[in-house]
């Protein structure tokens, strides 16, 4: 499956952005989807994941209550709604696909999209 993330940009602290990740190729609904982020010099870190049907989600503590992951299997797309953004959210955001639920490590994901840069100014 091929993944393409979009929606990044520059936003002021306190603002919102919605990231999208469009999938093509093999059946999108058979994959658990996740979002990760990475800043230069640091490891890629888990942000959120959503199960196959979209009914179960799991978040990193750092974004819980501010970010919402969702998916639309009819559109082969997963979303990350980011509210109350803070400068520490600045990173390149990646979407990824996994065969297993609630994976928080990069090793649990088999397909990755190119990242989209989110910059939060103070």
Describe the structure.
Strand 4 and strand 5 form a beta hairpin. Strands 2, 4, 5, 6, 9, 10 and 11 form a seven-stranded mixed beta sheet that branches. By secondary structure, the chain is mainly beta. It has strands spanning 2-6, 9-12, 17-24, 32-38, 45-50, 57-59, 67-72, 77-82, 91-98, 111-112, 116-121. The model has no long low-confidence stretch (mean pLDDT 95). It is 0% helix and 50% strand.
Using the alpha-carbon principal axes, give the shape: globular
Rg for CA atoms? 13 Å
Helix content: under 10%
Low-confidence stretches: none
Blueprint (SSEs and pairs):
Elements: E1 2-6, E2 9-12, E3 17-24, E4 32-38, E5 45-50, E6 57-59, E7 67-72, E8 77-82, E9 91-98, E10 111-112, E11 116-121
Parallel strand pairs: 2-11
Antiparallel strand pairs: 1-3, 3-8, 4-5, 4-9, 5-6, 7-8, 9-10, 9-11
């Amino acid at each position: 499956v091929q993944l393409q993330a979009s929606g990044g940009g520059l936003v002021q602290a306190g603002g919102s952005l919605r990231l999208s990740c469009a999938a093509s190729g093999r059946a999108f609904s058979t994959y658990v989807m996740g979002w990760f982020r990475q800043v230069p010099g640091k490891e890629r870190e888990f942000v959120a994941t959503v199960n196959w049907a979209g009914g179960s989600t799991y978040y990193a503590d750092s974004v819980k209550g501010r970010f919402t992951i969702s998916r639309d299997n009819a559109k082969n797309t997963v979303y990350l709604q980011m509210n109350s953004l803070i400068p520490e959210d600045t990173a390149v955001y990646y979407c990824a696909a996994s065969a297993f639920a609630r994976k928080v490590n990069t090793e649990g994901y088999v397909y990755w999209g190119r990242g989209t840069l989110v910059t939060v100014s103070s």
